[in-house]
Every structure is written in C-alpha cells, then in structure tokens.
Design a protein that fits this description.
The structure holds three protein chains of three kinds. Chain B is mostly helical. Chain B is 74% helix and 0% strand. Chain B contains twelve helices and no strands. Classes of the chains: A alpha+beta, B mainly alpha, C alpha+beta. Chains in contact: A-B, A-C, B-C.
Chain lengths: 376, 275, 386
C-alpha cells in the first residue's frame, strides 16, 4: 500500500508528445482513473510509473521512495496490460505462478499454490488452471491477466484499459465485479480508460488527460458538473454536451436575457453567476448543457424553437437532433416512450440550473448554478 | 438454385493436377538421375538409361578412399558456422526487431544484401585477403566466411519472429521480477524456438552445400562438395563415383529436413504472417 | 429501390459442424432500413456477403425486386456495397474513385460528373472531391465509402459495420447523418452491426441473429420491449437486462434458489407459468425500484456497487450470489453497504421458459407500450426454436 506522486513528468517520442508536465498525487489505497481519448498519453503515463519507459524530465515517488532509478522489477508495481500480455507457452496456473517464482519473490511452492488458488477462485477461473492460454476466451484471458497481477500483492496496481476488448455485456458485469473487488483489495490503483462511464463509475477521482497534458483532476461529480474547460465537458457524456454561443443582451440582478440559437431567451441567475458574468470582458459567453437536461415539447416563455432533424430510438431513451432557428444543431435525450416525426416543428427549453457557463476566449469554466442536493 | 460443378470447372481442376505433377517430376528428376548414376557401372554409363545392371562398386570405391575425412570436415565446418551464427545472429535479430536507432533499416538491408552477391564476385579479393591474413586453408577461415551465407538468413528469419512477440510480454515479465537476461532466456527464446529450428536447419543446408568458398579458399581442409569433383579425373570421368560421392554428401541434409519437416514449414510461415 | 426477399437462405462452410446461416427467411420492404444484429459469429456478415454476391449460397433464394440473383455477379445485382475493408483506390482522387464504378457501366462523362456532384452534395463531401484517400480522416473516408456505394443508385444498399472503427463523437454524428440520409433518400438498406444501440437508432426493423438463426425480426421498440426470447432480451438494452433462474415454490411464488428472494405472483402471472417448475426471470434495471423502506412484497438486499454516471446513477444490489443492477434518481445518495428494498414493477417482468428461452406472454402485453406503426406480422417468419 502506498501513495503515488508524479512531478512534472515529460516524455517525448522523437517529435511526438507522449506526456508533458504531468503532475499527479494519488493517495494510499485510492482508485484513480485516468481518462482520455486514444493517444492522449494514458499508456505512456502507466509505462512511466512501471518503469518500462524512462521520462525525459520529472520524477516519480511511490510511498516514501523516489523510484526513478529503480528497474521495473524493483518497484513492486503490478500491471494489467491492454493486450493482457499473457505468456503463451504457459497454462493459466503457470501464468499466475510465474511472478511468484521470480528471483524477486522466490516463494516456496506451497505458498505459490495457495495464493494462485485463492485468487483464481476469487476471479472464478479456478476450473481453468490447467488450460493453455490459446484455449481461453477473451473474458477468461482478462481474468487470468488480473489474477497474475493480484497474486503479487503489490504496492500499486496499474490497469491499462482492461475491459476494452470485451463485448458490451461482459464489460458491464466485469465493471461491477471490479468495483466490488476493489473494496476487498484496498490497493492503490491507477486505472486507464477511454470510456467515460468506466472512468466515472470506478474512480474515487478522475484525471482527465488529452494530448499529453492533464486537463483536470477531480471527483467524478466535479469533472462532470464543473468541467475545467470546454474540452473536458465534451469528453464526458454520450451524446456530447451541447455548446452554444450566447450574447448577453441585458442583465438584472436576478435574471439575464441572452441571444442564442437565433432567439432571445431570458432565465433566472444567482448572484454568483452574476458576479462571474461581470468579470467577462465582452458580452459574449459560451453555454453548455447536457442532452439529458433538454426539455422537449414544453410550452413557456423560455421556449426555443426548432425542427426535428433526426430521431434515433435507443431503447429506454431516444436521441433527438434539433435544427434550431439559427441552424445550429442541438441534441436532446428524451424518454424512450416518446416518438417524434422528422421535419416536424418542435419546442424545447433548457432549465437554467443545467447551464454551464464558459469563457468564450479561454474556453475555461466560469460558473454554473449550484446543484441542489437530493432529498431522500 | 446453387452453382453446380460445371464441366469447365472439372477440366480446370484436372489441368491443375497435371501441371503440378509435371512440376514435381521436373523438380525430383535430377535427384533420381543422380541416384541411378551412382548405382550404374562406368561401362554402362553412356550406353544405357534406365535398364542396366546395378552395382554398389561406385559406393565402395568412394568409401574406401579418404572421402569420409572430407565428409566430416564438411560436418564440422557447417555445424560450427551455424552455431556461430546463432550466437551472433539471435541478439542481432532481437536488436533489429526491438530497438530504434539511426540507420536501422539500412543496416538490416546491408546484412541481407550479403546474400545477393554471387560468391564468384567476391571470391578473388577474399582469396587475396585470406592469403594475407593466413586464413587460407584453415577451419577457422571457412567457418568465418560461411557467415556470409548463414548469418543474414538467420537474422532475417528471427527478426520476424521477435517482431511478432508483443513487447508487453517482456514488460510483464520484468514487472513480475525477472532481469532482462532471464526474460530473454526463459520467456523469449522458447517463443522463437520454431524460428530457431527453421533458421538453423536452413543455414545448415546452405553451409553444407557451399562450393565456391571451400573450392578457392581452402586446399587440404576440404569439404565433400568439392572433393566429389575429384572423381572427374583427367583420363576418364568416373561419373558413377561422382554421383555416389554426391549422394553420400546429400544424405545428412535430406534426413534432417525430413525429420524436422513439420517445424520447417511452421517456422518459415509463422514468422512471415503479421498479426 | 426494391424489396429484398431471402427464402430459407442457408450457408454451410465445408467441414463445419453447423450452418453459418440456417434457413433464413427475411422480407425487406422497398425503402426499408433493416439491421442485422448479433454477436460475432452469428452469421450476419455471411448473410450480407451472400446478398452482395461475395459468398456463394449453399441453398435458398435471394430475390431483389422479385428477380432471383443467386447466380448473378455482384456488379449485376444492383447492390451498393460499403464494406469495412473495401478500400478506396489510393492513387485516385475521391471524384475518380466515385466515377470508377460508373465508367464500368458505360455512362458518358457528362452524366458521370453530374451523378458524382449530386451524391457529393447529398453526403456533404463536395470539398473532398479533389483529395486523395490518404488525405482523408476516417470519418470522411466513411462518407466517401458510402457515396461510392450510393452513386450507382443501387436497388439495395449494403453497409458492413460502417461505424465500428470511429471514435465516439464521430460515431454519434455519422449515425445521425445516416439516419437523416435514409429519411430523405429512402434507399432499401441493410446494415450489419454488433452494436445494439446503432441498430436501435437506425433501423426500421431489426433482425436479431444468433448462431446462424433468426431470433426476432421486428421494430426496435418491439424487440426491446417484447423480446422473443432470453437471448434477444439479454442482447438489447444498455445496461443489459438482469436475468436469473427462479424456481416455482409453493403458493406459486417465484424463488431464486439459495437466496431468500421470493416474488409473490398474481393470478395473471400464475397463468403464464402454467405447469412449469422452473423459470428464468428477466427485468430491466429501470423496472426495479430501490428504496430504504420495506413495503409489501419487496425484497431485501445490500447495495454493493454505486456508479455515479452524471445523468444517471446505477446501483448493484446483492442477494447472496445474485447481483441485480438497477438505477436510481440522481439526487439519491446511496452508498455501498446500505441495506435496501427492491420492488419489481410487474409490467416490466419478463418470464422465460428455462429450456427454450422463449418469452412467456399472453399476447396482451402491457400498459407501457407507445403508439407505433404496426408491422405486418405475416411477413415475419417465426424463429426456429432449438
């Protein structure tokens, strides 16, 4: 068990930026997810912590030790690779036993057997111990890779997109299982993924990374409801957050009138929002709102108008794409029981509590109304 | 309904088989002819084709001469050449597969290009160099020059094998607590074993068959390929004995290839197919 | 545009244990968009390739607009293919790639240019026409691929996993574009996909396939709300339906073995169960209400997993060996370890026969059905029961 500290890690592959100036603190026994699109630098970060790759600049501490000079074998870090990296010539048992037989561990045979069986049972692969790797399904291989990492009882777990090659159903059940397992294991873990649902579900905190740089580190709630930049807001949510330009027409202390999506609309604001808007140099602001927050077919003063561009039913919910008056497209998530006709006129509105305000120049987060905590 | 087997398709198939058969005959005939020659007495050599009285006289003559000494020379030199190539080539193949460095592809191609040049082209300067260095007519000299034949082949075959192994496996083994050398010996080498077998065998065959190098760079330390020609004497050509000597010389490689046939096919195709 | 009819279409690969496609009957209407959906190896790609003419047919018929096309070369079938590995010719510009097909059919240069411009406008790729494939992004390549399939005005458009290799944002955008395009152009289209969201979003009707057999062929909402069997129920829906084994105990209650979970049943449900001793019970996460207060007929459990996913919160509740996923309003704050009580909405309950997997229903399924266009049931062939 140990905390992890990354300071100013930088790694370039020739001209290509792997990561730049990455600094991160992970608490002892914390489960941190590192989230970003493909090529963001997630695997590079893991490889640096494991010692497979050496940084150009920066340093890494695990526990109270600086590990920069240590070989991977000496860092007491276990990694689950995206490709699983199982030893093809060995059986499941041999794969899981391999680390325990290494010069680093050199455990007696009885203890090796005990540990392997314990974790194999936990991962429900105890009936596969004598199988060759080639004969396993993807899901079974993934569990074997997990098992090989678990038997070592390391200080740190590193997981590189372990669920990405599983089919949707298996991914769901493994995600729930992983979540349950982590409370039993209590080891500091860094989990890398490009799936935002995984990142939010599994992590105590989420580190959002793109193009080699950390964009934000926070709880799942923070990165979702108070994204540091427009970029972070766009990375979470499917369909993506709606982003529109708005021009402030007039402002009172408790309400504001903007022109956006080709229409004028006014909505109430809190004093906090008011003072944040004061700080803007001009009267342009960028508004973000999630498709699930859009209310469709509601009459009222704040109604916006548009035409249905496309309607995609997804089961419990449906995606509605609306062409607004100004032509910009807005997406809404509506209840699966409603149906809409393409090219029909429609009305919709966005509750002011769901609006996120961004500075249009810097694309940084400005303000939003505070979320009301739910009653039970 | 479905497509039936048209007469056209049947003729096409028959033609295919015929062509393949013709090629098989074409490829195997020289071997057959050589074997026939080796059991034909000299007197009947030029007068008969397939009908003759077979004799083992030629084999007897060859084996009672000092032929076997040269047979063993060939064995020593070929095996040693392959061993040297393994020791040098495997790490080289690994380096070319894994590491990125300036001029990597140029170096790799240069190594391969040693196989392009016909031996005759380089033999004269080599002869002079060998004389100068005192390597002429030595085991060491032959083993060394054989590397021109064996090393490029081995490196290219094994490079493909190493490239097929995901670098994640090495990283995993290191994280599991093994030093790099242990990873190499316990994890990587077993995985490239089919390549080692295939490459080793091929290199042996090429080294064994080598003719120009031993002919011109050696005299007394001679190999059986060259010695076989000795029977082309100035008075009469003892074709039968030449054939017998050649047949004996061909035996080891044919036996080896047949024994490891399965590995050979697997080894050669496995390394080539990506992903 | 034309209808497509498949009659007892079968494909058996030599030395295979079982057919890759087994007696498939499918009737696609003119202008309809259907999806072949199923896990890998279910036969969907093989079916598409047979329709395209890239794979020979073992037995059965393929008719496009009533014409038998089994023995016709792909280029004579009037199909447009946008396949995954059907690459664009690298040395040709996009315009020439699109024109390539048309030239082979003897159209004049002026007509070719007109058609290329027309399709470019429809798919919004006008600015890409003079570029070479290497200069295109994957999303652009996808659209050019579709343009090439559509430029010959095919009777049937065949798409093989067109969105699978795209990143999330592009996938959502292109999905909307394809849907819109179909709404405007109404090509008879068949798409092959393993992504059930894609099938749901795009198709007028979905053909769910498994191991070469058609499991169900109906509108997305029907397939989702009234799955024909356990396989379809488990395959569609994100997150998937909870399915567990139950045993009929005394007083007709449904009991999950080795747990204290017992679901009392109404007379209607009892009628469905009939004389069965065992059943599979399926319920979607939203059909379960989670609360901290015990009510009549509710079942106790402990929260072991909580997933805060922004717009929704999902919880996993455990009873002994069984983990049930449900969702709760975002405003509720539940934490692992909390004991809760579950109530199952009866209209969201699905009962499946334990051997055939078929869903048990009395034909008059419930209350929560939206008004939607009814499908001509006589065109759908019953799935083959195993």
């Amino acid at each position: 068990m140990a905390s992890i500290q990354l300071s100013g890690l930088t790694k370039f592959y020739g001209k290509r930026r792997g990561v730049e100036d990455v600094s991160l603190e992970v608490g002892d026994q914390e489960f941190l997810t590192v989230f970003g699109p493909a090529g963001a630098g997630k695997t590079t970060t893991l490889n640096l912590i494991a010692g497979i790759v050496t940084p150009d600049r920066g340093s890494i501490r695990i526990g109270d030790k600086t590990v920069d000079a240590l070989e991977p074998a000496d860092r007491n870090v276990a990694m689950v690779f995206e490709s699983y990296a199982l030893y093809p010539q060995f059986t499941v048992y041999q794969n899981m036993a391999f680390p325990l037989r290494s010069p680093k561990h050199r455990l007696p045979a009885t203890e090796v057997e005990q540990r392997v069986r314990h974790f194999a049972t936990m991962l429900k692969i105890d009936h596969l111990l004598d199988r060759q790797i080639q004969a396993l399904s993807n899901g079974q291989r993934q569990r074997t890779a997990l098992g090989r990492a678990l038997v070592r009882r390391p200080d740190v777990f590193l997981m590189d997109e372990p669920l990405s090659h599983l089919d949707a159903k298996l991914r769901h059940s493994m995600r729930a299982e992983l979540k349950e397992m982590r409370s039993q294991l209590g080891t500091t873990t860094i989990y890398v993924t490009h799936d935002y649902l995984e990142a939010m579900s599994l992590g105590d905190r989420v580190a959002v990374i793109n193009q080699g740089r950390i964009l934000q580190v926070g709880t799942p709630e923070e990165v979702y409801f108070r994204p540091a930049t427009v970029e972070v807001a766009q990375l979470f949510g499917d369909p993506e957050i709606n982003l529109i330009e708005a021009k402030i027409r007039s402002r009172q202390s408790t309400s504001v009138r903007v022109q956006a999506l080709g229409e004028d609309w006014s909505f109430p604001i809190t004093p906090e929002i008011g003072s944040a808007l004061d700080k803007l140099p001009g009267d342009n602001v960028q508004l973000g709102f999630r498709p699930a927050d859009v209310m469709v077919g509601v009459n009222g003063n704040s109604s916006l108008h548009g035409v249905v561009y496309s309607f995609e039913p997804l089961g419990t919910k449906s995606v509605l794409t609306i062409d607004s008056v100004a032509g910009q497209r807005v997406r809404a998530l509506v209840d699966g029981h409603r149906t809409f006709q393409v090219d029909r006129r429609i009305e919709f509105s966005v509750p002011s509590a769901s609006l996120i305000f961004f500075d249009p120049e810097s694309t940084r987060y400005l303000v939003r109304s505070t979320r009301t905590e739910g009653d039970d | 309904m479905t497509q039936s087997r048209s007469p056209r398709a049947k003729i096409g198939k028959g033609l295919q088989i015929l062509l393949l058969l013709a090629y098989a005959v074409f490829a195997l005939f020289p071997l057959l002819w050589m074997f026939i020659m080796s059991i034909k007495p000299d007197s009947q050599m030029l007068t008969t084709t397939f009908i003759f009285t077979p004799t083992l006289e030629n084999y007897a003559t060859v084996l009672h001469s000092d032929y076997m000494q040269f047979f063993f020379n060939n064995l020593i030199v070929s095996v040693a050449a392959v061993l040297v190539s393994l020791v040098v080539g495997v790490p080289a193949a690994y380096a070319l597969a894994r590491f990125q460095f300036k001029g990597k592809e140029d170096i790799a191609f240069t190594i391969l290009s040693f196989r392009f040049a016909p031996e005759i082209l380089v033999i004269l300067p080599l002869y002079l160099i060998y004389q100068r260095l005192g390597l002429y007519d030595t085991y060491f000299g032959l083993i060394w020059v054989y590397q021109l034949i064996t090393l490029p082949l081995l490196i290219w075959i094994l490079r493909g094998f190493f490239e097929d192994i995901s670098p994640d496996i090495e990283a995993a083994a290191q994280l599991d607590g093994y030093t790099w050398w242990q990873v190499f010996l316990r994890v990587l080498l077993p995985l490239v074993k089919p390549g080692l077998v295939a490459a080793g065998l091929l290199c042996f065959i090429f080294a064994w068959n080598s003719f120009t190098f031993p002919l011109l760079l050696s005299n007394n330390v001679q190999t059986s390929t060259v010695i076989a020609l000795r029977y082309l004497a100035s008075d009469t050509v003892h074709y039968g004995q030449v054939a017998a000597a050649a047949a004996i010389s061909a035996l080891p490689e044919v036996i080896l290839a047949l024994l490891i046939q399965k590995h050979l096919v697997r080894g050669l195709s496995f390394g080539a197919v990506k992903g | 545009m034309a209808e497509l009819t498949l009659k007892t279409l079968t494909k058996v690969y030599t030395q295979a244990q079982s057919p890759a496609v087994d007696q498939l009957n499918l009737a696609v209407r003119d202008g309809e968009f259907i999806a072949l959906l199923g896990p890998s190896g279910c036969g969907k790609s093989t079916t598409l390739r047979m329709v395209a003419g890239l794979e020979s047919v073992t037995s059965g018929e393929i008719r496009i607009g009533n014409k038998l096309v089994n023995d016709l070369h792909p280029k004579d079938r009037g199909v447009g293919l946008a396949f995954e590995n059907y690459a664009l010719y690298p040395p040709l510009k996009v315009r020439d790639n699109l024109a390539f097909n048309l030239r082979a059919h003897g159209l004049g240069a002026k007509e070719i240019n007109r058609r290329v411009d027309e399709i470019a406008r429809t798919l919004q790729i006008q600015e890409l026409l003079d570029l070479k494939p290497a200069a295109l992004s994957s999303g652009q390549k996808q659209r050019v691929n579709m343009a090439r399939a559509m430029v010959r005005r095919p009777s049937v458009l065949l798409l093989d996993e067109p969105l699978s290799h795209l990143d999330a944002r592009l996938r959502v955008e292109l999905r909307t574009e394809i849907k819109r395009l179909h709404a405007e152009q109404r090509f008879t289209t068949i798409i092959v996909t393993h992504d059930q969201l894609e099938a749901m979003a795009l198709a007028d009707r979905i053909a769910v396939m498994n191991e070469g057999v058609l499991e169900q062929f109906d509108t997305p909402l029907e397939v989702f709300n009234h799955p024909a069997n356990e396989f379809v129920a488990g395959f569609l829906g994100e997150p998937p339906m909870n399915i567990f084994r139950t045993v009929v105990a005394d007083a007709g209650r449904l009991v999950i073995p080795d747990t204290d979970f017992a679901l009392p049943t109404t007379p209607a449900v009892k009628k469905l169960i009939g004389s069965r001793k065992e059943l599979k019970l399926g319920i979607r996460p939203w059909g379960i209400r989670v609360s901290q207060t015990q009510t009549d007929g509710s079942v106790p459990g402990v929260i072991v997993v909580v997933e805060d996913l922004g717009d929704e919160t999902r919880v996993g509740v455990r009873y002994s060996e069984v983990l049930i996923m449900s969702s709760i309003p975002v405003t509720r704050r539940y934490r692992p370890g909390l004991p809760v009580f579950l109530n199952f909405n009866e209209e969201d309950l699905n009962l499946f026969d334990p051997t055939t997997g078929e869903r048990l229903s009395d034909g008059s399924d419930g209350s929560s059905q939206p008004a939607h266009e009814t499908v001509g049931k006589n065109e759908i062939q019953a799935p083959v029961t195993r």
